[in-house]
Amino acid sequence: MAPKLLAFFQRWWAEKIPNIQAIVRKLVDLGQLEFINGGWCMHDEAAVHYIDMIDQTTLGHWMIKKQFNNSPRAGWQIDPFGHSAVQAYLLGVELGFDSLHFARIDYQEKEKRKADKGLEVIWRGSRTFGSSSQIFTNVFPVNYSPPDGFGFEVLDENILPVQDDMLMFDYNVEERVNDFVAAAIAQFSVCRILVPEYGQSYLSREQGIADFKLKLASMT
């Protein structure tokens, strides 16, 4: 699980009793819950001034550091319609991110990149700073939802639950595992898998969550 908009997370966090907050802190410490991007919001990259981009990102990262003594490692700009070198360098490499992920690019470019297996690149965000401004960047081949049938949300009509009780008539663990593996293979078939250098941990596949999909936080 990976919260990415601190404005939403803080509303949820403020309502939780200390025992629940302690559980969340433990999950963060264990690496089972990881903040990605970490901004107060997911800012646009074209219509806003870079100072505003820095300010809102600083606020979100400050809150994470204060409450969890933790820092995000991956950029997550999946909603902005267009992307800038400022994001790749100033709000990527300079933040200590290992990777940057987004979904929206021109459909013609996306189809060409899928055909050329060019959805994963090393993006150099600054000509001036050269290789020190590089960051592993991943463009999602379709969108940022989980594979079909794997949303696991009560309002998702396409969900096929995993039934792991072998005594039940609809036991389907092997089938569901095979479906997920097939979905992963289909996605990776349009990507070149980039091997990170020693000491770096590039994240090349996210189990994405589309907008407002998780309605019942207490159940997820």
Automatic annotation (TrEMBL):
It comes from the Eukaryota. It holds the Pfam family Glyco_hydro_38N. InterPro entries: Glyco_hydro/deAcase_b/a-brl, Glyco_hydro_38_N, Glyco_hydro_38_N_sf, Glycosyl_Hydrlase_38. SUPFAM superfamilies: Glycoside hydrolase/deacetylase (SSF88713). Residues 7-183 form the Glycoside hydrolase family 38 N-terminal domain. One of its GO terms (molecular function) is alpha-mannosidase activity. Gene3D superfamilies: Glycoside hydrolase 38, N terminal domain. GO terms for biological process: mannose metabolic process. This is Glycoside hydrolase family 38 N-terminal domain-containing protein.
